[in-house]
Every structure is written in structure tokens, then in C-alpha cells.
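A quick aside before the break. I want you to see a complete sequence-to-structure record at least once, exactly as it would be stored in a machine-readable document. Don't worry about memorizing anything.
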Amino acid sequence: MIDKAQRELRNALGTFATGVMVVTAVDASGKPYGMTANSFASVSLDPPLVLWNVGRDAWCYSDFCAAKHFAIHVLTENQQHVAEHFAKKNVDKFGAISWHSGPHGVPKFDEFMTCFLCRAERLVEGGDHSIIIAKVDSYDLRPQSQPLLFYRGEYHRMHHSGTE
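That is the input. The structure line, written in C-alpha cells, reads:
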């Protein structure tokens, strides 16, 4: 349960607009799982490292902490339904989307803005979250797409000023 001070801090942090992503992996038995997140950042170009955070209260926390390989899908502005679906608990995450098994059996969506195929490098404890630092093994960029954004607790689309 979030108290008043935590809610105020969460609202303040929500003024920083972010992209929206879904991270996918497979568990030890080969079953796919995934979750929506917006905590993603570039760490290094040489070597190519990124990071993202998973909350200790996430239903798949222990699976992601143990995962050796995963895919980070940056969603397009037309994939809000995917973000909402992967944010739910106790639903068939993969029955409603088009995907295939990528390297190491990691689920890779057929539609995305960018997909990073990653290998876990380090897990850093960070309060009520763990920070997963990963090496980017490969990526697939579709620059014709526009990103889905998250700002002040709501999904948004990018607006262009026309002055490109």
C-alpha cells in the first residue's frame, strides 16, 4: 500500500515522460512470461549495456532476477493494448499477441518500435526494486514507428510540431 508521501513522490516522478516497453523471457521450464515497464535506460555503448528495473512485488520478480536472456520491446503508439495486457496479473500474456521464439527461446513480438535481445550481466539491489543491467546482443529498429509514451500515470502519443 502506498502512503501519502509515496503517492506524492510517485506523482512527481511521473512528470518525467518515458517510453513504454514489455520485457519477455522464458522460465526454467521454457514457459514464456513478460511484464510492462517504463524503467529503461542506456548505460554504455562500449560495451552495449542497458538497464531496467523490476519491482520486488511483481509477480514475475524472481523469474526476471534469474533470467539469463530476455527481450525488451519498445512499444509503438498503436500498442497501448499490449502495454495494458502485459500489466495485468493472472492472464494469458501471449495468447492475444503475435510473437515467435527468438534466440534462447525468448519470446519476440512481431510488432514493436525497437526490440533489444539482451543477456543479463548484473543484478543490483535498489530499495523496493532490483536493477537489471544487461548486455545488448542484438537489436531490431523500426524507425518508421512512433513510440508509446507514459506521463503522469497515463499513456500518450507523441505530437509533432511540423518543424522537422
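Two observations worth writing down. The chain has one domain: 19-154. Residues 19-154 form a domain with the Pnp Oxidase; Chain A fold (CATH 2.30.110.10). We'll return to this after the break.
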